[in-house]
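Q: My labmate handed me this sequence with no annotations at all. I'd like to see what the chain might look like in three dimensions before we decide whether it's worth expressing. Could you predict it?
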Amino acid sequence: MSDRHVEVIARLVAWAERDHNIRALIQTGSSSRPTGSADRFSDRDIEIVARDPAPLLADDAWIHAIAPVWVAQYLENDPGAFETRLVFFEGGRKVDFTIADCTRIEAMVETGTLDGLYERGYRVLLDKDGLAGGLPTPSNAPPKHSLPARVEFTRTVTEFWFEAAHMPTYLIRDELWVVKFRDWTMKQMLLRMLEWHSIATRGPDTDTWYIGTKMKQWLDAETWNEVHDVFSRFDRADAWRGLVTVMALFTRLTRETASLLEIGYPVAAERSVTAYVLGFEAEICALG
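A: Here is what I predict for the chain of 288 residues:
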């Protein structure tokens, strides 16, 4: 498998070597793991460790100096978190930069403990001061996922059925964009339940990745097959079919997960909204 990022990474290292402010470059993410999870489309996650991150945050000229840029996105991070720059370079080569100061590495060296990201695997691309030399060896193990408390579980179930209750109205009105808008919130709750169900059935070491990545690997075969039918076309008849399907799948996952976790959930909402929605089946199917 050829690595489309070789040139970009080489130019990044050359740039960092010339800049006295940059002290280290650390690659993280799937391309740094020995699991074989990366492919030719995988991006590169690079942490830039600088004496002073401020100049890199104030002026993005350094990004353009590495390679021609197609598009870049600068995320608003949580207070106290390091800034990120997500960049598509020419040729569709994507690099996600985290801009940190030396305390990022020093803290892990001092405690002898890697954070969750580094524990999964890292590669040192540049280390001018030997900062990264004291980092522990990663275990390459995925993080242990925690299961939801009852309040979070209930909130997720409630939001799903709250959105589902809107659907007959907008389907009858033929407001298909609104149907898709509501449907996407339901899909977000479904994804959360898919993750919880998988962890509850397979154990806390189950790697559910992010936003459904590698879903086929962490779902059971029955659920994977059912997921194929939850998306629908932009028309009323197929949107109705998709709605009925996603409600049935969410109901099964919710009941099984709640049983495994031995927690209750608002089953009255599930039953009431299901009966309400299905009560419109004849009318919506007649509309076509």
